[in-house]
Design goal:
The protein has about 280 residues and is an all-alpha fold. The chain folds into two domains: about 10-25 and about 30-90, Orthogonal Bundle (Arc Repressor Mutant, subunit A), CATH 1.10.10.60; about 105-275, Tetracycline Repressor, domain 2, CATH 1.10.357. The protein is flat, with a radius of gyration of 22 Å. The protein has twelve helices and no strands. It has helices spanning about 10-20, 35-50, 60-65, 70, 80-90, 105-120, 135-150, 155-190, 190-205, 210-215, 215-230, 250-275. The chain starts with 9 loop residues before the first helix and ends with a helix. Helix content is about 65%, strand content about 0%.
Length: about 280
């Protein structure tokens, strides 16, 4: 399920994202509003976190607040605008400043780990396409933070754009796989162990020469299992912000792959910096 952001009214959505809608206008008097945009956004995130994107509706959010959907429309025009606000609120959880005392690479690693963990807390965000960004202050702030970190690498603009895009997509892509690993058993009603056992046993029957036909894949999986058992499946330089897999083998493997891929990507950035310096 892919959802496109920015489907609400552009004027209203951008005004809600960038203004302070819960602050009374000068000279306004009367009792404090019973609802607020902030409360509605918080409730929307709670619904999406607990039940997924498919369950998100103005009615569901209203029920969580003990109100009707109609009561929400005074504050948020519709689901499209609400989704933009929710997306931006989630990105506000990311730190704005990172310590650059040890250079750009440790800070970039910390940024990626923080973003990975944030997306796993709110996996529905990964269903929102990046083809049309929300353009909210928190989303742009996360990008600004990454650019501030990578600014210390001294890369030319063209290369910097590519690095930012690759790093962001690595985080989102691997987080989505980890989130899906968590959700698969509940969504299908089949535990991971049962699913793998049934198919691996059948595969062994249908392809007894599997190791001969796919020797590289067999070696790769064998080595991966050995590394995981030895506790060496993750990059030693990676931070600790991301979850540890929570006992789910596929999620743990995805986390290890994320950290390894991140390290290799940053190795490439360092090599580009070195070539430029040379």
């Amino acid at each position: 399920m892919t959802v496109f952001a920015g489907q609400g009214d552009a004027h209203r959505s951008m005004s809600l994202l960038w203004a302070a809608p819960d602050v009374p206008r000068a000279g306004r008097s009367g009792p404090k509003p019973a609802l607020s945009v902030a409360a509605i956004v918080t409730a929307g995130i709670a619904v999406a976190d607990a039940e997924g994107m498919a369950a998100l509706s103005m009615r569901a959010v209203g029920e969580r607040l003990g109100r009707t959907a109609m009561a929400l429309y005074t504050y948020v025009p519709g689901k499209g605008e609400l989704l933009d606000l929710m997306h931006d609120r989630v990105h506000a959880e990311l730190p704005v400043d990172y310590d650059l005392g040890d250079g750009w690479r440790p800070a970039a690693t910390a940024w990626a780990e923080d973003a990975f963990a944030c997306y796993l807390r709110h996996p529905w965000v990964l269903q929102i396409s990046q083809a049309r960004p929300v353009l909210g202050p928190a989303e742009l702030g996360a990008m600004e933070s990454l650019l501030r970190i990578l600014g210390g690498a001294g890369l030319p603009t063209r290369v910097l754009r590519g690095v930012v895009a690759a790093l962001w997509q690595l985080v989102r892509g691997m987080a989505r796989t980890a989130a899906e690993a968590r959700a698969a058993a509940a969504a299908t009603g089949v535990p991971d162990e049962e699913w793998w056992y049934a198919r691996s046993a059948r595969l062994a029957e249908l392809a007894p020469d599997f190791a001969d036909r796919f020797p590289l894949l067999t070696a790769l999986e064998s080595d991966a299992g050995t590394e995981t058992a030895a506790g060496t499946g993750t990059d030693a330089d990676a931070g600790t912000a991301a979850p540890d897999g929570g006992g789910n083998p596929l999620e743990a493997q995805t986390l290890a792959a994320f950290r390894t891929g991140l390290a290799v990507l940053l190795d490439g950035v360092e090599a580009a910096v070195g070539r430029r310096a040379g």
